[in-house]
Amino acid sequence: MASKPSLAAANDFLSFVNASPTPFHAVKSAKERLEKAGFTQIKERDSWASTLQPGGKYYLTRNGSSIVAFAIGKKWKAGNPIGMIGAHTDSPCLRIKPHSKRESDGYLQVAVETYGGGLWHTWFDRDLSIAGRVMVKAKDGKIEQRLVKVERPILRIPTLAIHLTTTANFEFNKETQLFPIAGLAAAELNRRGKTEETKEEEKKDGPFEPLASATQRHHAYVVEIIAEEAGVEPNDILDFEILLYDTQKSVVGGLNSELIFSARLDNLMMTYCSIEGLVKSLTSSSALDEDSTIRLISCFDHEEIGSTSAQGAESNLLPAVIRRLSVLPASESNSDKSYDTLDADTITAYEQTLSTSFLISADMAHSVHPNYPAKHESHHRPEMNKGTVIKVNASARYMTNSPGLVLVQEAARRAKKASSSVSSAKEGVPLQLFVVRNDSHCGSTIGPALAAALGARTLDLGNPQLSMHSIRETCGAHDVENAVNLFESFFEHFEELEQKIVVD
């Protein structure tokens, strides 16, 4: 009897995605994994001169929704290459509006705003809850961020019964008909034991506030639930960024447990795989001893809305980190120069580092759809569990070119064999190629923006999936391990491969 492929990586990914309903939670989950692997947190606002050391492992966050982590080879010298993987932490979702309190025909409703290009019809008739970031007044007088995740379903967007519509296709207005219901007005009044008149009197009490309080802008019980999760009183809540999410857990599915049914595969799967690839490349205590490069991952927020923000891929986050790392001196055993010493080489170290560095832009790809096969180009039809997909586009919507493809192919050839692989080779993970049809629209990634900003060699890839941007997506369970092993190999062999594949 044939042995079943391992699902260890898939199940570990499920724990990651289930704990990460928002970018804030995804960064928290990433921090926990990095710290367990020995990474130390640093801050952008601090000097790194006396902190960063060759052989060290560090991470930093921006806005609590983007994260950069890196490990410095012990043979590092200023101006040396950096091997990088970039992903993003956000997914299309619904976000509670700043003034969300609504009531109609006896129902309490919550006004929401669309984020990204979601398949919004998939959000109807789902058991929804809320999660996100809350800014609260702490006991010491400071204002701090706290994350909340309400586990029980409290919201639902009901569809209109088929008997009440003559429209053959399901159509709706995103502003007026994408309204979740939170309960019944009568039940809430009964719970509070108050009338509408006494509620209006409450609004007049208290000191002057430039903005209406959270309990005035949102349903009081919603604020109370958020406050309970944050461990504060409702009056201690100053503001929040709250997203809706589906309470149904991500699971392994399929007749032979070969699939994953999950929310936020785009792009928490690539976020997870980049973190695990970096961590696994450092498992050996001597992993950095002979390495003269830096191994780095950067997971950005706001890719789904164009990446133009302080914490998006078009921000200065990654360039600023690279600039500071590029002038990091060699260890004392290899150099007597201090971090602050400037010489001719150090002045151009940033440009030297960028010219020899390589970035993998990791974002999920489209699997061929069995019900819509004509949507794929006839010879570029990625399949699930057949390996990570290298994405190519002549109009530079993806950044893949032939030198980069050769480098990643070499990393795949040298990677540890995935336990799910059907290949008879002793090592290696499979890859696939994707080109969009000439008569179809091509999406994009963080790759083009970062390639333009950095000038570093860049390649786009991702694991294949179905139902991208749906509230519930599907991918191959064994492609998780494929991607992790690929990324681990990239970091382990980047120094050697970078020196072999030179195109100026």
UniProtKB/TrEMBL annotation:
EC category: hydrolase
Known cofactor(s): Zn(2+)
Signal peptide segment: none
Pfam families named among the record's database cross-references: Peptidase_M18
Keywords: Aminopeptidase, Hydrolase, Metal-binding, Metalloprotease, Protease, Zinc
GO CC terms, sorted: fungal-type vacuole
Name of the protein this chain belongs to: aspartyl aminopeptidase
Organism whose genome encodes this protein: Lophiotrema nucula
